[in-house]
Design goal:
Radius of gyration: 23 Å
CATH topology of the largest domain: Beta-Lactamase
Largest sheet: 5 strands, antiparallel
Helix content: 40-55%
Distance between the termini: 63 Å
Number of helices: 15
Strand content: 15-25%
Number of domains: 3
CATH superfamily of the largest domain: GAF domain
Length: 393
């Protein structure tokens, strides 16, 4: 694929370059209130600059961790690997911080050891063989980086391209600032939050900026007592890198689903028992819209509801599921095990049943709940009893 923006071709008419540049800026500013966030802009950027991938990554400055963002052209598996293994030590990101105000190119930076085992593994995992990165937006608590990638079949980035990239930075900063302001104004608390605050189950609301905008008293108590999780300046993180990477990935998917008004794409994160009590965290997209006006249509408001169920005292009883869904005794026991993150082999050992029998029970559970995946099943049965909390005197 050929780049539609000129790179080193001095013969390209200036009017043609400006037309491409103006179209890219139009896409950028349209993304501020787009229900896909900045994904459309990143896709256009990949197309115009012949890039393999483009990401706007949100980093927690204090913990130096990736906790969200928008992506184009990069796989979920690659994002998960990067967050768990490279995000806190990425030399290209470190160079971007040092060169605040301009892009840097991996293949032209001596400080970026492309032949190191870690970066070689990243290249293999992601398919990216050269990158260009810049610090786009910065606050006291977070950095936002724009990173472009090219694969082995594409040419390395050039100085000429970096000059064009740098021209985008002031617009990107302005667009990001406007996006955060709009998101913040759309997250006014509703009277329902007062009800949620009184519930015994820990509940947390995260907005489209990946910031915690509400947590009830039970969630506040959990955060104070559980050493695995931290809340710092509105950013929720897990201390164990792989657990945090899994959380970040699933939170990103949930927030993306909410922008499409999709409330069926629940994600499930299991917090294994150890020093702390085992628990299941359900991430549910919140589908809502800003009010329409004669001048502007209703637009989706991105968000995610996190609900925690400790395995020792907050899981629904199998009897409730039998009444709600018509599970048999055996199916209810299997469902309880799935809600605790147990595998089919573990359940087979505990219940003294063949794995084939367990798989048959799981198929029946999916059929009776009209779900397609085990994660969807777990989210449904755990959230199905939330109404009992709302009806407590």
């Amino acid at each position: 694929m050929q780049s539609s923006l000129p790179q080193t071709d001095a013969a390209t008419p200036p009017s043609q370059e400006l037309a491409h540049y103006d179209a890219l800026l139009h896409q950028l500013y349209a993304s501020i209130q787009s229900n896909q966030g900045f994904t459309g802009f990143l896709e256009r950027l990949c197309q115009d600059f012949s890039c393999y991938s483009a990401t706007l990554g949100l980093f927690d400055r204090k913990k130096n961790r990736l906790y969200g963002g928008w992506m184009a052209g990069i796989s979920d598996a690659a994002v998960h690997w990067y967050s768990a293994n490279l995000a806190d030590r990425d030399p290209l990101v470190q160079q971007a911080i040092a060169r605040e105000g301009s892009f840097c190119i991996a293949s032209q930076q001596q400080e970026v050891p492309l032949h190191s085992p870690l970066l070689q593994e990243w290249c293999t995992t992601s398919g990216i063989h050269d990158g260009a990165c810049a610090l786009v937006h910065s606050t006291a608590s977070q950095h936002t980086f724009l990173t472009l990638g090219r694969n082995q079949a594409q040419p390395p980035f050039t100085v000429r391209e970096v000059e064009v990239f740098d021209r985008l930075l002031p617009h990107l900063r302005r667009a990001m600032t406007l996006h955060w302001l709009i998101q913040a104004n759309q997250n006014a608390q509703q009277p329902l939050l007062q009800i949620l605050d009184s519930l015994d189950q820990p509940l947390i609301i995260v907005d489209g900026r990946f910031q915690v905008t509400f947590l009830n008293q039970a969630a506040d108590n959990w955060l104070r007592q559980d050493e695995r999780v931290q809340l710092d300046e509105g950013i929720l993180t897990f201390t164990e890198p792989r657990l945090h990477a899994d959380f970040m990935h699933k939170l990103s998917l949930s927030i993306q689903a909410s922008t499409h008004l999709d409330t069926t794409s629940d994600q499930v994160l299991y917090l294994p028992a150890g020093k702390e009590t085992g628990a299941t965290l359900v991430l549910s997209p919140l589908a809502s819209q800003s009010p329409a006006s004669p001048m502007t249509p209703a637009t989706p408001i991105a968000g995610c509801l996190l609900s925690l169920r400790a395995w020792n005292n907050q899981l629904p009883s199998p009897e409730q599921w039998k009444d709600l869904f018509g599970f048999s005794d055996a199916e209810a026991r299997v469902c309880l095990g799935l809600c605790q993150g147990k595998s089919v082999d573990q359940l087979a050992d505990e219940l003294c049943r063949e794995t084939s029998t367990l798989r048959s029970h799981i198929k029946s559970l999916l059929r009776k709940t009209n779900t397609q995946r085990q994660a969807e099943l777990v989210a449904l049965v755990l959230n199905s009893t939330l109404g009992t909390y709302l009806n407590k005197p």
